[in-house]
């Protein structure tokens, strides 16, 4: 990607997570860390000073706090793209209330695989919220239902398991596990494993283990 790098601002109260995000993007010349903070109050001041392209922020409880925060940020900087950061797939269902504002979500345990692609996609104008939320369901044509094995793979992925771990749990090769995951992603119309989990949860294809 030529020209000015995409600027990212991180809001999270966990220093290790912020450091992890910084480490992930440090090797990508297309993305630059504009700033980070552990509080929304400081975030608004940073937002005015930095005007980042993408903002990474956590889901809050109650969800209305997240909606209010997104509204305030976009009123200050309407061009920004906001990605919601969640610790568990079931929280993503709450994002239905904020789908008109946020552009994407990320699971904390999938940052190392999905962060860079998500930031690049948002900067390119894409929206990565689940298809059931952002797109009219009549426009989504599924190539077919998920097989039982594909659902099994997605259930383990939803719990943060890597392809290698999924393969070990199901007693199959890592390549086979990856193949099942890619087929499930294609059937669900997902761009990455995180989005596949969210779409599957939204449609009731898989459930969340407690």
UniProtKB/TrEMBL annotation:
Domain Response regulatory: 7-123
Keyword DNA-binding: yes
Gene3D superfamilies xrefs: 3.40.50.2300
GO MF annotation terms: DNA binding
InterPro entries on file: CheY-like_superfamily, EvgA-like, NreC/VraR/RcsB-like_REC, Sig_transdc_resp-reg_C-effctor, Sig_transdc_resp-reg_receiver, Tscrpt_reg_LuxR_C
Pfam families: GerE, Response_reg
Any single biological process term in GO: regulation of DNA-templated transcription
Keywords associated with the record: DNA-binding, Phosphoprotein
Protein name: DNA-binding response regulator
Annotated organism of origin: Halopseudomonas pelagia
């Amino acid at each position: 990607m030529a020209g000015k790098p995409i600027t990212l601002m991180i809001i999270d109260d966990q220093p290790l997570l912020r450091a992890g995000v910084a480490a992930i993007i440090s090797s990508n010349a297309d993305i630059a860390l504009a700033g980070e903070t552990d509080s929304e109050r400081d975030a608004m001041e940073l937002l005015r000073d930095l005007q980042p392209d993408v903002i990474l922020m956590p889901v809050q409880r109650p969800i209305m706090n997240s909606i209010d925060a997104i509204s305030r940020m976009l009123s200050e900087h309407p061009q920004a793209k906001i990605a919601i950061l969640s610790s568990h797939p079931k929280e993503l269902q709450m994002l239905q209330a904020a789908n008109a504002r946020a552009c994407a979500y990320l699971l904390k345990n999938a940052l190392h695989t999905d962060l860079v692609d998500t930031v690049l996609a948002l900067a390119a104008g894409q929206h990565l919220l689940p298809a059931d939320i952002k797109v009219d369901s009549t426009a989504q044509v599924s190539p077919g239902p998920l097989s039982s094995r594909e659902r099994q793979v997605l259930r383990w992925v939803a719990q943060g398991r890597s392809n290698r771990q999924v393969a070990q749990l199901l007693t199959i090769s890592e390549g086979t596990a990856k193949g099942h995951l890619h087929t499930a992603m294609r059937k669900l119309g997902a761009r990455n494993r995180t989005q596949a989990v969210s779409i599957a949860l939204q449609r009731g294809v898989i459930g969340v283990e407690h």
